[in-house]
Design a protein that fits this description.
62% helix, mainly alpha, Rhopdopsin 7-helix transmembrane proteins, two-stranded antiparallel sheet, globular
Length: 392
């Protein structure tokens, strides 16, 4: 992940890999290597692969920003009291945080190549980046726990709202705590003999094993543990559904059991969201693991591989609102209503600024006034004059 795999190599050096052009969004740029036989250093540049990554990230940003704002507005509407509503609100907020922090930071950093924003921004933005990724993962865990309780303990529905709020508070607080080391690890470092400054963790660890331990801890808490919790929750859910279906009672008593069908539909939606998280982020995490155990792999894989896997991971912030829209009729109704209001507003705007039509001629004699009918082709004549209206 952008806050995981790259972080593990930023600590090594502010000097880029020798004779390897890479964008600052890649792990290669912010890592180091021993000098080549010729002893030449090549400063990183804004490569073609980096430019493609920037364009793709901007497209993802526009879609994720608009779609997650739409979900946030729809779920926040008054009168919708479903216990799942507050969970969807938090997931949309977490996805928006990733969209508004990770994507712009990655885009600008790729363009500028080095860091120009100062030491305070270096610390704060890297903290927010990791905080956003933690919140997205942990909110999905909370949703999984909520679905497990809804299926395994259906009669606890009345306390679900308070339970979800408590779990979300813990998830957001844990995200802040787990991301807080970034405030102390990241700092500015200037390359020796070069006009090149980078935001790195170099020098923050006294021993290499300490750095590896921190990276593995981040990997476990950011990906492995949340994924394990989701898998356990949905495995228990599917086992319970299978058991009750065999006993012909409980969850799906009949095709007309509206509550059960609604619950199963919500369950399918959350499962798809979790699967999307796994599919989008797993390849990039595996690449990070590969680097930790074999750092020289950076020279063996093409630059575009890292770019592609990161973009595929960021695609997860776009998939959540799409899945929510597919499984939530009220969200689609809100979109149609918003689109209708937008179309009506544009139509009124065009009519208000349209120049007078040449198909209607109003002839006014001296001080005589005419009150033209809005819908008819004949004007209403006032008592003090006449108006002649000719339609073509």
């Amino acid at each position: 992940m952008v806050v995981n795999m790259e972080q593990c190599v930023m600590a090594e050096s502010t000097v880029p890999l020798l004779n390897q052009r890479a964008s600052p969004g890649t792990v290669a740029l912010r890592s180091s290597a021993s000098p080549d036989p010729a002893g030449h250093w090549e400063e990183p540049s804004f490569t073609v692969a980096s430019k493609v990554r920037v364009v793709a990230t901007v497209c993802l940003f526009l879609f994720a920003c608009g779609s997650n704002w739409a979900v946030l507005a729809s779920a926040a509407r008054k009168g919708r009291k479903s216990p799942l509503r507050v969970l969807i609100l938090s997931l949309s907020a977490a996805d928006l945080l990733v969209t508004l922090v990770v994507m712009p930071l990655d885009t600008v950093w790729n363009i500028t190549v080095q860091w120009y924003a100062g030491d305070a921004a270096c610390k704060l933005l890297n903290f927010l980046k990791l905080f956003a990724m933690y919140s997205s993962s942990l909110v999905l865990v909370v949703i999984s726990l909520d679905r497990q309780a809804a299926i395994l303990h259906p009669f606890s529905f009345t306390s679900a709202g308070q339970r979800n709020r408590n779990m979300l508070a813990v998830a957001w607080a844990a995200s802040a705590v787990l991301a807080s080391p970034q405030l102390f690890l990241f700092h500015l470092q200037k390359a020796s003999g070069l006009d090149f400054t980078q935001c790195v963790t170099m020098g923050s660890f006294q021993q290499h094993w300490q750095e590896t331990l921190y990276n593995m801890f981040t990997f476990l808490t950011l990906y492995v543990m949340p994924l394990s919790a989701m898998v356990v929750c949905y495995s228990r859910i599917l086992w319970e559904i299978s058991r009750q279906m065999k006993e012909d009672r409980g969850l799906v008593r009949s095709n007309n059991d509206h509550f059960s069908k609604a619950r199963m539909k919500t369950l399918r939606m959350t499962i798809v969201m979790v699967v999307s998280f796994i599919v989008c982020w797993t390849p990039y995490y595996l690449l990070g693991l590969w680097y930790w155990f074999r750092p020289e792999m950076l020279r063996e894989i093409p630059e575009y591989v890292n770019h592609t896997l990161l973009l595929f991971g960021l695609l997860h912030t776009c998939s959540d609102p799409v899945v929510y829209g597919l499984y939530t009729p009220s969200f689609r109704e809100d979109l149609y209503a918003c689109w209708g209001r937008l179309g009506s507003g544009l139509t009124r705007h065009r009519l208000a600024h349209r120049p007078p039509s040449l198909s209607f001629l109003n002839v006014q004699d001296y001080g005589l006034t005419a009150d033209l009918s809005v819908h008819g082709s004949v004007g209403s004549v006032t008592s003090n004059g006449t108006a002649v209206q000719t339609g073509f």
